[in-house]
Amino acid sequence: MANIQLRNVTKTYGAVNVIKGIDLEIRRGEFMVFVGPSGCGKSTLLRLISGLESISTGDLYFDGERVNNVLPSKRGIAMVFQSYALYPHMTVYDNMAFGMKLGGSNKADMDARVRRAAQMLQIDHLLDRLPKQLSGGQRQRVAIGRAIVRDPRVFLFDEPLSNLDAALRVQTRLEIAKLHHDMRDVTMIYVTHDQVEAMTLADRICVLRDGLVEQVGTPTELYDHPNSVFVAGFIGSPKMNFLDGDFARAHGCATLGIRSEHIDLVPQGAGIWQGQVIHAEDLGSDNYLFVEIGSKEPLIVRQPGKVAVPEGATVSLQPRPGMLHRFDETGRPVQAPLAAE
Amino acid sequence: MTTTITAATERAMARETGLQQQRVRAAFWFLAPMLLMLFFVAAWPLFRSIMFSFTDADANNIFSGGAEWVGFENYLTWRVRENGDIRWRGVLADPDWWNAVWNTVRFAIISVGLETVLGLLVALMLNAEFKGRGLVRAAILIPWAIPTIVSARMWGWMLNDQYGIINSMLLSVGLIDSPIAWTARPDTAMIAVLIVDIWKTTPFMALLMLAGLQMIPRDMYESAKIDGIHPVKVFFRVTLPLLKPALMVAVIFRLLDALRIFDLIWVLTPRSEGTVTMSVISFQNIREFGDYAEGSAQSSLLFLIILIFVGLYIWLGRVDLTGERS
Question: Model pTM?
Fold first, then answer.
């Protein structure tokens, strides 16, 4: 329900500059994901928005109102913590009702809200249990339920899936996506280091690096038009192939990037790169071929279906036209068109 | 095919129980020296002392082995006098003993109660982040580190009615008109003992509880902050319940200590009726009057009382644990 604006926000701890000046607008009802490697400041940024940490310089606005000095409880936010932060001595019901109960809310209203949230998340049969009697996934849902009960303007998620196993992570990810659909007007901000979570959940992704915004955009924008080597390498799995030296120079850049699915196997001699298959990974739906073409790291080529290419075979490769990403020495995209293409 | 599998499984199981047995055997040998030690320094003396309490042992016959079995005579016995009156004798009929019991229980409850509250306050303070916290944490342990005899003497001087600094300070601010002989007067002796014990032991309580406080995840508090819950409510609804296990252990440690207090009282307020405790009276009987029988009966009773207190405490504590959801 809130539009959030950050204007030149910084955060310093003593002499350490964690957030180095961030300008960002998060739109009403948007699902924004902060993603980046550990130590990039994404969690700190979330805590600045929540009010758990104070902003060193700069301004933070919720719907045009400056909230730098507004208490967390007055910002209309709810937060889901990485560790869930459930009170171990309270039942699921009490955990979800705790804030409202001690906030002096109407009892019937509180009960209705807790039960509705529990129903939404299918944890209504667990209301009498203690957190220790729940599985990881159930705890996570209780934590989300507790946030829903607060009926917030802004939902904050701090790496909520990182304590779950892989299968549960996918399932809970889906539930969070569903939650976003059900609560269309609630702004959600989600912190993760996992680019798959970012890609699957986000309306827009904000890639952070060393306390600065590297790029903001929809998952497709970031995937198709990364505006730095860093974003190109961070978004997408398997990682984008990077070639430098003569491979890059041939295309008029310092670093040449090409995604694994944009390289085709072509008849011998027809491609611009040749090399030996040193390893193949069969994922069932796809085959990943690792091809040694003389670059620093082997080129990863993604082949849909069951293409039987034996290890040791020599193959010829051709990148798809228009799918090459060219970057200069500073890691920024090269704008000048390439004559050869 | 099936038989070979079963045989293999059986062999594996046999190997497993063999392993388990080996572990148990190893554990026993690791524990054996300590069990032996405990037997000689704890179990045997305790057993001897309980045995003595059923004999007429005294300084004259205890080493010659001439002590005779007298049953419960040291605890309680009665004689009907010629005029028909019944005369009770034994420790349980001795008003001095009951005075000591009352002193001990009073001391234990008041000192442990106040130490818990004060220790918790100190722990909460030390749990907050501020500059020089490490230094304060170390400094606060000093009273605990000073040997009891030394601190008892030190406080004895400070509380002295002639040259003590405390009387001088109280006089100069006009709280009292004439010096008080804190440790000598029966009505203030217990207060003096309590002051010194609380001063000495609060740091220990504080550190035990600080360890408990630091086990509470920070995001519990952050979650409460986002909910906008008043810090006092957070303390009673979140901190205290989560601290309870640590608190229970700290209290039981202190309770055990307080119920058998001896050194502080012996040095600070010797022979004061207002402070004499079960340990002191038992010690006096054995060492000063050579009355091994009565002293042993008293120390056996002390052992029993501590056992009851601790048992009661654990039992009540457990009841509370299951009842906390109501």
Answer: 0.79
CA distance B196 to chain A (A): 37
Provide the edge-to-edge strand list for the sheet that holds A204-209: A77-80, A154-158, A187-192, A31-35, A204-209, A212-217
Mutation for testing the A interface, residue in B223, B225, B237 having most A CBs under 10 Å: B223
**Which of the listed CATH numbers 2.30.42.10, 2.40.160.20, 3.40.50.720, 2.40.50.140 matches domain A240-327?**
2.40.50.140
CATH number for the domain whose boundaries are A4-233? 3.40.50.300
Chain A residues in contact with B222 (beta carbon < 8 A): 52, 79, 81, 85
| Cα–Cα distance for residue pair A122/A116, rounded to 1 Å | 10
Q: For the segment A261-285, what is each residue's pLDDT rounded down to a tens digit? A: 999 999 888 889 999 999 998 888 8
Do the chains contact at A79 and B226, CB–CB below 8 Å?
yes
Closest by Cα among B161, B158, B204, B165 to B181:
B161
What amino acid occupies position A332?
R
Cβ–Cβ < 8 Å for A307, A287: yes
Burial (CB < 10 A; 0-12, 13-18, 19+), residue A203, is middle
Is B21 part of a structural domain of the chain? Answer: no
Q: CA-CA distance, B55 to B49, in Å (whole number)?
A: 10
Q: Strand A65-66 to strand A57-62: parallel, antiparallel, or no bridges (unpaired)? A: antiparallel
Give the integer Cα–Cα distance in Å for B125 and B104. 31
How do residues B121-151 score in pLDDT, each as one tens digit?
999 999 988 888 888 888 888 999 999 999 9
Q: Give the DSSP H/E element, type plus range, for residue B217.
A: none
